[in-house]
């Protein structure tokens, strides 16, 4: 029997099961972050830790200890001899207990860590290559409007699941998602950016969507390239005015968009941003083992 491609640890112990009473399973009561790792290094750890801290604070979880969290992640990675890029997923659950939706007053937090092969990169050298520009389609599935949860990567990702299902057998690698107010929010598993002149515009996520870890770290890199960062409401007509469009996520970094519907985009500045992002990640990766 072949080994499973995804291995799982719960609170630092190798495990393949979790209780059905876990609030993460019962109610989606938790959050997660998905990290790119290679040769014992976690890429953009500062962005991931910011997400973890903000998610715990906004959802009323006890504050996590950074050193203890890194120790668990290091323990997982130290058991592996994996020179190729991997996906390290950290799921934080409120644990068990409470009465129905009412959470326990003193929750016992569970950290679930999963490690699996990178879905795109087979070697570290492939990470440095210019990615193939993507084509986008518009999805019918919309992002919900909820200021209380907007920006968080909580465990209920049904909007993204439904949008992602729309792409099956279409030939499109990504799809554009709007919310009910017809604001452009994101792609199915990526943040969205427009380049217009010397300005990089990304949708305001105060009402809908997920604030990605790459998006969190990108403003300084944009500034270093002589560009201006802007977060604001974006609508479909703004895409028609854009010189370039690109996407970002933690596992694939910067992804240029070549076309959306009949609109064709240049990619030159995006490739500059992609290279600057790659170099920043290499120089700032967190060595944990």
Q: End-to-end span in angstroms?
A: 30 Å
Q: Name the CATH class of the largest domain.
A: Alpha Beta
Strand portion:
25-35%
CATH superfamily of the largest domain: D-amino Acid Aminotransferase, subunit A, domain 2
Mean pLDDT: 96
**Secondary structure category:** alpha+beta
Q: Given the structure, what is the number of helices?
A: 7
Portion in helices: 25-40%
Total beta strands: 16
Poorly predicted runs of 5 or more residues: none
Please tell me what the overall shape is: globular
Describe the structure in your own words:
With 289 residues, the protein is of the alpha+beta class. It has 2 domains: 7-120, D-amino Acid Aminotransferase, Chain A, domain 1, CATH 3.30.470; 130-287, D-amino Acid Aminotransferase, subunit A, domain 2 (D-amino Acid Aminotransferase, Chain A, domain 2, Alpha-Beta Barrel), CATH 3.20.10. It is 27% helix and 28% strand. It has 7 helices and 16 strands. Strands 7, 8, 9, 10, 11, 12, 13, 14 and 15 form a 9-stranded mixed β-sheet that branches. Strands 2-1-6-5-3-4-16 form a 7-stranded antiparallel β-sheet. Helix 2 crosses helix 5 (213-224).
């Amino acid at each position: 029997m072949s080994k499973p491609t995804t291995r799982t640890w719960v609170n630092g112990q190798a495990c393949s099961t979790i209780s059905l009473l876990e609030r993460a399973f019962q109610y989606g009561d938790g959050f997660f972050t998905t990290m790119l790792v290679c040769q014992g290094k976690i890429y953009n750890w500062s962005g991931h830790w910011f997400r973890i801290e903000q998610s715990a604070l906004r959802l009323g979880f006890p504050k996590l200890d950074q050193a203890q969290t890194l120790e668990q992640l290091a323990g997982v990675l130290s058991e592996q001899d994996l020179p190729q890029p991997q996906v390290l997923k950290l799921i934080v659950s409120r644990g068990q207990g409470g009465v129905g939706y009412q959470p326990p007053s003193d929750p016992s937090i569970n950290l679930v860590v999963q490690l699996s092969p990178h879905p795109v990169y087979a070697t570290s050298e492939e990470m440095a290559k210019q990615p193939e520009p993507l084509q986008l389609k518009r999805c019918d599935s919309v992002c919900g409007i909820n200021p209380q949860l907007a920006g968080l990567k909580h465990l209920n990702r049904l909007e993204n699941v439904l949008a992602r299902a729309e792409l099956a057998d279409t030939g499109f690698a990504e799809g554009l998602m709007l919310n009910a107010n017809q604001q452009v929010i994101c792609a199915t598993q990526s943040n969205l950016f427009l380049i217009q002149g010397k300005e990089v515009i990304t949708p305001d996520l105060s009402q809908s969507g997920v604030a990605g870890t790459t998006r969190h770290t990108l403003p300084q890199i944009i500034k270093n390239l002589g560009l201006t960062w802007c977060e604001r409401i974006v609508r479909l007509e703004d895409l028609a005015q854009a010189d370039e469009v690109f996407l970002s996520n933690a596992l694939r970094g910067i992804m240029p968009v070549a076309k959306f519907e009949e609109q064709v985009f240049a990619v030159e500045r995006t490739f500059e941003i992609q290279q600057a992002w790659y170099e920043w990640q290499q120089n700032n990766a967190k060595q944990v083992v």
